[in-house]
Design brief:
The chain folds into 4 domains: 86 residues; 230 residues, P-loop containing nucleotide triphosphate hydrolases (Rossmann fold, 3-Layer(aba) Sandwich), CATH 3.40.50; 213 residues, P-loop containing nucleotide triphosphate hydrolases (Rossmann fold, 3-Layer(aba) Sandwich), CATH 3.40.50; 234 residues, Rossmann fold. It is α/β, with parallel strands linked by helices. It starts with a helix and ends in a 5-residue tail after the last strand. It is 36% helix and 19% strand. It has 20 helices and 33 strands. Helix 3 runs parallel beside helix 5, helix 8 packs parallel to helix 11 and helix 16 packs parallel to helix 17. The protein is rod-shaped, with a radius of gyration of 50 Å. The longest helix is centred in the N-terminal third of the chain and has 86 residues. It binds adenosine-5'-triphosphate (ATP). Keywords: ATP-binding, Coiled coil, Nucleotide-binding. One of its GO terms (molecular function) is DNA binding. This is FtsK/SpoIIIE family protein. InterPro entries: FtsK/SpoIIIE/SftA, FtsK_dom, P-loop_NTPase.
Amino acid sequence: MAESTKQQVMEVRAGLSHALGVAENALERAERERDTAVAHWERVRAAAEGRERKLAAARDERLRSIEKWHATELGALSGAAAGAADRAAPGAAGEPWHSWDTTPLPAAAELRIGRLLLPTAPGAAEETPGRPWQWDSPEPAAPESPEVPALVRLLDHGHVVVRGDRRLGDDVVAGLLLRALGTSAPGSVQVIGYDPEHLGGGLAGFAALAPARVLTFVAPNGLAALLDELVGHVRRINETVLAGEYSSLRELHTATRRRPEPWRVAVLLGAGELNRHERTQLDRLLRTGAACGVHLIVHGPEVEPAAGIEFVTAAPGADARMSSGGDLPVRLDPGPPPAVLTATCRQIAEAVAAGPAPVALDSLLPDPGEEWRESSATGLSAPLGDSPQGTRVLVTLSDYPPHALIAGPSGTGKTNLIYAWMGALAARYSPAELAFYLLDFKEGVSFARFAPGRRDQSWLPHVRLVGVNVNTDREFGLALLRFLGAELRRRADAAKQHEVTNLAELRAEDPSGVWPRIVAVVDEFQVLLAGRDSVTTEAVDLLEDLARRGRSQGIHLVLASQDVSGIEALWGRPALVAQFTLRIALPRARRVLAEQNTAADSLPRYHAVINPDSGATDANQIVRVPAAGDREQWSTLQHRLWRRLPQNSPPPRLFDGDVQPRLADSPDFRALAPEDSPAPMALLGETIDVMSRSARTVLRRAPGRNLAVLGTRVEEACAVLATAGRSLAAQHTRDGARFSIACFDQDAQAAAEALHARIPDCGWYDASNVAWLLEDAAAESTAALPADRPHFILLYAADALPGGKVAGDQLRTVLRQGPERRLHVLGWWRGAGLLRDTLGGQASRTDPIGAWVALDVHGSELAPYYPGAGAPNWYPRPWRALHFDRSVHRGAEVIIPYGAS
Ligand SMILES: Nc1ncnc2c1ncn2[C@@H]1O[C@H](COP(=O)(O)OP(=O)(O)OP(=O)(O)O)[C@@H](O)[C@H]1O
């Protein structure tokens, strides 16, 4: 190969290697530059990432703090809302149904219908990403934030209109009503239902309230009347209760703590169209009712939004709304469980039927140590209780009103009212200022507590007389009236003497005299006036006189009656009734107030209408009477007053018609002493009188001075003869009189023997030897001169005298002629006709029997032994006898034989 070629190859090679070298250098440089650029990029990117991270961290941090703040703030707000709700709706107003119970509150509360669904923080809503906020969980699981109840204002605030789903709306209405009832005192919420579609079915769960009239229904056509009535209440309350002084009952309650009117909640259900009048009245009530405690719950009729009206839209789930909650969803509570509803209604009805808790008697009394400070010179005044407005109601007896008429059906508290009144008077006036005379014609012993008894020896110091169990002894009423009549005359005489006209003046003129005002209380007085007989006639005359003239002499009558007949008994005597200007009516009392005055019809239990103006409506005062019936409470007062009495003060006279008096207790018997009086006195029994006096017949030396006891009742006949025998014996020394007893009835043997044993040297005769006695007595009776000592012959069953005509003639001789010669027969005949036989048959004269005591013998049978044409008015009754003595009596008197003593 040529050199040049070689050369050329070498040159090419050199050129190539040079070029390669250059290229390698360039590559190397380029690669370095690339590395530098990559490193730079890497740095920039790292820096960028770092920055991004920092920013994200900062953002996250910020977000977290925002969320935290939000959650805290929301929690605090819902906590505050829940707390406020608890305060606004405590107890039964807000408690869930499962733990619900009634809790009467001092003031009206807001009422829960469900709960407000508040927004919650996003952290609590993981399941629904993408939504910044969510409504809290519809499940009943406890929400994160405290539950905020949805509350509506009803009582004392406004009205509630429920719309939307009918069934859920019914639940809202039921819940609201139950909470309203459960948060107020029983009876203070009255519900009136208008349910034309379901005829009350919409409020069926509340049916238990109906008997207590806490719930009433109006008829389907009664809406207008109901609205009119409610408007009437609003007008009346505005005029007479708020009377310009308060703007609402709520304000009145806040100022005085009193609530004189109930809340009236009218529930209007159904979707009927309202007519113009109804619409106008409804609008009136919506505007003005709440201030007067008249509230509407409307679930049906359309109502325009207005202040004070809460609109609740019932819907399931979270779709319910209430107007005061804005857009916040409401989850409504279910309706109250039926068991809770019925149990509560029953409990409320029972509480209403049982009436309000009694007030204590102490509330009427002055403080201990302050008793007996008042003067009765011008009248007697004492509180009887509080009015519904909380003011004291004073009851006065004076010149006007002088007398009182009290009426109330049995069990309404008439006796209690009398006790309370007496207690209030007795604590204020001393016995020198006030005296009570008490008579109870009711069966029972209600006034007995005022007199000493076996268990309690104390008595009410003012009480001078207590008559109990006198329902068959109308004569005792008469005796009281006679006694008061005599006292009236005594006072009138004293007034004349001092030239004064009334008690106040008499007391001023005669400061040392004791002139207490007398209050005579006659319970069930109509018994006294029942019957067309001499007792009624005389009682009415006496009553009339006392009522008319007693006023100025300080004698006050208080007549009480439980039934209308009591008042009717007086009704034919307008002049008498007119004097009884103080009228007291207990619940449902009839005729005691003026005819148009119906206040007693709507009186609650333990209340009374006090009316000092003859029952005129304007003078009504309602009073809540305290409980005075409780023996404990009463005896505390009685003992307190009794201890103030001076030692040895006499107890009152207690006349108990059920108790047989004892001869040994008779003041007249105890006063007897042997004195050989020419007019020995045979006591016979106790008279029915204010003073405990013994009936007597005087066996002086005069024709007819014999005594006949007539009737078949052995025990009573023996009691009368024993009384006569013992009292006669007590008036003679051992030899001062001769006593002979003859007994022809086996049943009377023991009693006759007992008397025989009590009388010293008393002769004893029976069928075997009575002939001697009669022979002897007949001879004495026809002797020329009277005996030097009396001879009392006591014959038991004289009609069974043996010895035929001879003995009969002898006895007749003794009866006719003996008394003039100091021989007196005290005989028991077992019938009025049998006595007539002894005297000689139908045509015979009866004047040998100057005195008689009749037992179970009818008045008509006594006619022959009674002067004039008539017969005494007498219907036999156990352990009572009729006594008549020609020498002293105008009419016969009822007596009570002395019992075994
Ligand atoms: N104001 C009252 N507060 C509490 N209890 C009362 C009150 N008034 C009466 N009661 C109670 O009611 C019952 C009946 O009362 P009360 O005997 O006075 O009636 P009444 O009208 O006299 O009845 P009756 O004529 O049948 O005797 C009693 O048990 C009594 O204790």
